[in-house]
Every structure is written in C-alpha cells, then in structure tokens.
C-alpha cells in the first residue's frame, strides 16, 4: 500500500483508489460516507437554527477555512509547466550526471515567477523573473533554481533579508509591490553598491520580458561538475530560448498590466495548449577548477559578476521542451518546492557565499510554507528515483514505513538500507583546498569591484536600449521622496557612465555629480590566446 505513483507529467495517477481525488459516482464526506444533499445545512425545522451536529456542514466549512497556505516569502507569483529535457551528451566528459547523457529524456517541471509581487500581483511589472527547473532524473531530483538575469543584488546570503525588506512593500503603506519600491529599494541599492550591476539589468529592457517563453535563464552562481574520473570543472548554466530574447517597452507593459494582469501566465498556458511548445537549450560556460576560482581576472565566486561570452562561449548540452500545462495550480505550481541543494551525482556547489546561504534557506522556508518536513512526498515534489531513506514520522507523513530499526547498520531488519558505491552516489565531495583556516566575517578583495561590469553592460547597449534605461532610472528615481536617495542614485550612475548620469540628472532636474573614483576599465583583458581554448567538451 505505497503512495500512488506519479505520471511522467508529475500528476498523481491515483492507482490507490482510496486516494483518488474527487472522482467516483457519489459525493461523499472526506471519510467516504455518501451524501444526499450538500446545499442545505441541518436545522431544527425549515426556519429554525442550524444544528452543531451537522457533520457535513462542519467538515465542508472547516476544510475551506484552511484552504490557503502562506505564499512564498519571495517569488510568490508564478506560472509553471511540465516538459521534457533531452541531453545532447556533449557534457558527458565534464559531468557524470545521467540526465546529461546523449538522448536521455528526463521529465521536468518549470516554474517562472516574479520576485517581489504577491500571489495576486500583475505579470508585466519591472522585476527579475525566477526560472526554476525540477529535473526528475533517474538518480534523484536535480533543481536548477535560477533567474532571468545572470547576476544578483548581493554577494552574501546574510544580506538577503535586508534586500528583500528594502524591495518589498513599505511596512506602513504596503505600496508599491514591484521592483520600484522607491525610497527603501533605491536607498539599499545605492548604499550596497554591489547591487549596481543587477539594478542596471532591471532598468534595461531585460526587466520586462515580452513573454516567459522569450527569456533567458541563468544559474547565476558558478557550479562544480564532476565527471566519471572524479575530475571537476567549474561552470555557469544558461538557458537559451529558441524564440529568442524579447522585451516589452514600458508603455506596452503598462497597458498589458491594465488590460490583462495575467498577461504572461495566459501567454504561456495558451501557447502550450495550442501546441506551440516553448523550448530552451541548456548551455554551460566552463572554467578550470583552479584553487583561485578566478577566470580572466573575474571572481567566479562573486554572484554579481558574469563571465562575458567572448571570453568563455556558451556551449549547449541539452534541449528542454515545455509541453503540458499543470492540471491543478495548487497541487503543482503552488506546492512545488525547489531547493538549490537538490543535486545528483556529477553536480556540486561552490563556495559562493550567496549559494551557501541558499542551501539553508529553501528547505527552511518550505518547512513553514508546506507544513512540516514531509513535503518531498507531495506528488509534484516526489522523485522518480527509488527512495530508501531513514526519515520517519512528522507532520503530514503519508508513507507507512516498515521495519523497526531506521538506522544502519542494524541487525534487526532484513531490508536494512545499504549505501551506494562512490561511483553512483550523490554528494561526493571534491577534495577542494580550503584556502584560509582563520575564521573571518569578511569578503575577498575581488568582491570590491561593484561598477566595472555595470559599465560593461551599459557600453554594450544600443542607442535605443540606452534611451529605455535612462527613462527607467528617471521614472524610478523620480518616485523617491527623499532627495538624498535620488542624489546618491546619481552618484552610482556617475560611476557607470557620464552620459547615463547626465541624462537621468536632467530628467530629475538635478545636476550630475562627477564620479567619485575614476571609471573602471570594463573590459577584462583576456590573454587572447585563451579565448576559445577553455572548452573541454568537444
Ligand atoms: C525562491 C532564485 C537568492 C531565498 C526562489 C525562486 C527562485 C529563486 C527562482 C522561486 C522558486 C519557485 O518557483 O518556487 C534565486 C536566485 C538567487 C536567489 C537565482 C541568487 C542567485 C536567494 C537567497 C535566498 C533565497 C540568497 C536566501 C538566503 C529564497 C526563498 C524562496 C526563494 C526563501 C521561497 C522558496 C519557497 O517558498 O519555496 N529563489 N534566489 N534566494 N528564494 Fe531565492
């Protein structure tokens, strides 16, 4: 009497009839007692008071009263789809992960989201978008929990509550709900200048996608892949949409918000229903796993930095096709639980301090959001690999465990869990040197450069893209009440580019400050002989 199986699309097939949801010839209570009337409560006479003994009335209303669960603390608004990932086999020499092998097909569930708005907020706001993919691999679940912007606001997870508090609605007025949380948001990103690069991406056309089907996705952090020989390679993951990257201009987004606040989720669901299945290629940039964790002067552990594709090309390793809409929003899109730490053999983390904090945060929040430690048993979260863990009991336990000795080794149960060999196991640590043994609350000096890549991004923009960026900063900074915040915003812009700063200052009716420091040389100076030589997959 194990739990019911899960179809390739992640839906409960309900092969255990007792658990089939809401089917069968008769309406019943939750206990299976047949009902003859669900429209009238039990009363002492047709015009008399309602009787407490009406079990069906109490059950129906009690369950309804508890239908809502907390929305996600961030990324509350999302839309999702089922699909399939097919490996090209081109990554097999850098990762032993089975799902990357040639022509292996793996079911996936992808949830796209905005970061800041609540569950009922509008789709076409200026914000970062989440791009989270659950791969139900034969070796266990692998979650790639990324965004549509390749860098992040902060370098250390300890600041995550702070940036989210600054960007979420004001605690007194509960406005606004999008990226432009005005004074507190701009106060934060101008005082914590490592946020400059991400903020510039948000103010660019990337901040308002045309469609969820037309967004890139990024793993953001540097990951470590491990091959069958135990050799490791550092990588950055990229999703490249087959439909290309497209955006809405501000005016379009405003109209879409007004006409159809569900613009993006409707577009995704309609396209899939019509058979126009969106596709993305998964790609990696690869870097040698050297003790410095640097590449061409770029700190690979700093999540506010990209590695330009001119220095390390993105090479594709598989194709994802989204081909089925969820059949139940709550059971799938709302209850799905992603976690950076869900990894399979051949994929590992790095010392990026933002990534390390995420390893703690996701399960921790899901313990509250999904009511205890057994949410991996929910149909959408269930692995498609056999499970033989030693976990027991807890809120919302649905498994009926057998045996008396949930520890190993034990001499009492015949089916004592055994351990895999190192060749098939996940979480095999690569023996990486820990460079310092001294405890420090500090960051590497290479984390101090907050402006050079923002400048690189600005300089790569076309004239019309620059116009949009200037308009976005002018509008958003213009909404700040505090003059000091606007002025600090201009000081940040002065460190990106004089033209950008001057144009925004003009729009705000303020004077443009001079940069406090000389502008950084944005071009990492690669030894040209290195370019194109780092790719070990061919
Ligand atoms: C949710 C991405 C940084 C905490 C999410 C989701 C995505 C995401 C895509 C939505 C998952 C879904 O659709 O259910 C990222 C990226 C980050 C980042 C790309 C940086 C590179 C962080 C950090 C923390 C954090 C630093 C905390 C220390 C959370 C929490 C949720 C969340 C608590 C809600 C999860 C849930 O309720 O299931 N993040 N995030 N994130 N993130 Fe992050």
TrEMBL record:
<feature type="domain" description="Catalase core">
    <location>
        <begin position="28"/>
        <end position="416"/>
    </location>
</feature>
<feature type="binding site">
    <location>
        <position position="160"/>
    </location>
    <ligand>
        <name>heme</name>
    </ligand>
</feature>
<keyword id="KW-0349">Heme</keyword>
<keyword id="KW-0575">Peroxidase</keyword>
<dbReference type="GO" id="GO:0006979">
    <property type="term" value="P:response to oxidative stress"/>
</dbReference>
<keyword id="KW-0479">Metal-binding</keyword>
<feature type="binding site">
    <location>
        <position position="111"/>
    </location>
    <ligand>
        <name>heme</name>
    </ligand>
</feature>
<keyword id="KW-0560">Oxidoreductase</keyword>
<comment type="similarity">
    <text>Belongs to the catalase family. HPII subfamily.</text>
</comment>
<feature type="active site">
    <location>
        <position position="75"/>
    </location>
</feature>
<dbReference type="GO" id="GO:0004096">
    <property type="term" value="F:catalase activity"/>
</dbReference>
<feature type="binding site" description="axial binding residue">
    <location>
        <position position="362"/>
    </location>
    <ligand>
        <name>heme</name>
    </ligand>
</feature>
<comment type="function">
    <text>Decomposes hydrogen peroxide into water and oxygen; serves to protect cells from the toxic effects of hydrogen peroxide.</text>
</comment>
<feature type="compositionally biased region" description="Polar residues">
    <location>
        <begin position="2"/>
        <end position="14"/>
    </location>
</feature>
<feature type="binding site">
    <location>
        <position position="72"/>
    </location>
    <ligand>
        <name>heme</name>
    </ligand>
</feature>
<dbReference type="GO" id="GO:0020037">
    <property type="term" value="F:heme binding"/>
</dbReference>
<feature type="binding site">
    <location>
        <position position="369"/>
    </location>
    <ligand>
        <name>heme</name>
    </ligand>
</feature>
<keyword id="KW-0376">Hydrogen peroxide</keyword>
<keyword id="KW-0408">Iron</keyword>
<feature type="cross-link" description="3'-histidyl-3-tyrosine (His-Tyr)">
    <location>
        <begin position="339"/>
        <end position="362"/>
    </location>
</feature>
<dbReference type="GO" id="GO:0042744">
    <property type="term" value="P:hydrogen peroxide catabolic process"/>
</dbReference>
<feature type="binding site">
    <location>
        <position position="358"/>
    </location>
    <ligand>
        <name>heme</name>
    </ligand>
</feature>
<dbReference type="GO" id="GO:0005829">
    <property type="term" value="C:cytosol"/>
</dbReference>
<dbReference type="GO" id="GO:0046872">
    <property type="term" value="F:metal ion binding"/>
</dbReference>
<protein>
    <recommendedName>
        <fullName>Catalase</fullName>
        <ecNumber>1.11.1.6</ecNumber>
    </recommendedName>
</protein>
<feature type="active site">
    <location>
        <position position="147"/>
    </location>
</feature>
């Amino acid at each position: 009497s194990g739990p019911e199986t899960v179809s390739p699309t992640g839906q409960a097939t309900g092969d255990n009839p007792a658990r089939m949801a809401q089917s069968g010839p008769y309406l019943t209570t939750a206990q299976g007692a047949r009902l003859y009337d669900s429209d009238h409560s039990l009363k002492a006479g047709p015009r008399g008071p309602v009787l407490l003994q009406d079990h069906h009335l109490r059950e129906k209303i009690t369950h309804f009263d508890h239908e809502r669960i907390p929305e996600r603390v961030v990324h509350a608004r999302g839309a999702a789809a089922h699909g399939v990932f097919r490996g090209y086999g081109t990554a097999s020499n850098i990762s032993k992960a089975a799902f990357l092998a040639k022509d292996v097909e793996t079911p996936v569930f992808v949830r796209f989201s905005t970061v800041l708005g609540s569950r009922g907020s509008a789709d076409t706001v200026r914000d970062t978008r989440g791009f989270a993919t659950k791969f139900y691999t034969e070796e266990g679940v692998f979650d790639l929990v990324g965004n549509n912007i390749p860098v992040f606001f902060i370098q250390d997870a300890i600041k995550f509550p702070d940036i989210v508090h600054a960007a979420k609605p004001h605690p007194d007025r509960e406005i606004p709900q999008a990226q432009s949380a005005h004074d507190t948001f701009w106060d934060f990103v101008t005082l914590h200048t490592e946020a400059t690069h991400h903020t510039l991406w948000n103010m660019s056309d990337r901040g308002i996608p045309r469609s969820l089907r037309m967004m890139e996705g990024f793993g953001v952090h540097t990951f470590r892949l491990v091959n069958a020989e135990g050799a490791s390679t550092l990588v950055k993951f990229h999703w490249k949409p087959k439909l290309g990257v497209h955006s809405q201009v501000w005016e379009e987004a405003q109209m879409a918000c007004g006409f159809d606040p569900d613009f993006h989720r409707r577009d995704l669901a309609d396209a899939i229903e019509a058979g126009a299945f969106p596709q993305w290629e998964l790609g990696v940039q690869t870097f040698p796993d050297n003790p410095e964790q640097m590449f061409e002067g770029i700190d690979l552990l700093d999540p506010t930095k990209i590695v330009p594709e001119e220095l390390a090309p993105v090479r594709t390793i598989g194709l994802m096709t989204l081909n089925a809409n969820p059949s139940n929003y709550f059971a799938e899109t709302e209850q799905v639980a992603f976690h950076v730490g869900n990894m399979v053999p051949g994929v590992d983390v790095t010392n990026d301090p933002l990534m390390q904090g995420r390893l703690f945060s996701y399960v921790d929040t899901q313990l509250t959001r999904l009511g205890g430690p057994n949410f991996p048993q929910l149909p959408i979260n269930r692995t498609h690999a056999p499970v033989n863990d030693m976990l027991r009991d807890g809120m919302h336990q649905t498994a009926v465990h057998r045996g008396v000795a949930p520890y190993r080794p034990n001499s009492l149960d015949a089916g004592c869990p055994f351990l895999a060999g190192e060749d098939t196991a996940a979480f095999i640590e690569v023996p990486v040197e820990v460079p310092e043994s001294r405890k420090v609350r500090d960051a590497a000096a290479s984390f101090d450069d907050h402006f050079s890549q923002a400048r690189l991004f600005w300089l790569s923009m076309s004239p019309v893209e620059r116009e949009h960026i200037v308009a976005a900063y002018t509008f958003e900074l213009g909404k700040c009440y505090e003059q000091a915040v606007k002025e600090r915003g201009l000081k940040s812009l002065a460190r990106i580019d004089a033209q950008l700063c001057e144009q925004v200052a003009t729009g705000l009716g303020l004077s443009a400050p001079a940069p406090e420091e000389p502008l950084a040389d944005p071009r990492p100076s690669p030894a040209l002989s290195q370019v194109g030589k780092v790719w070990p997959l061919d």
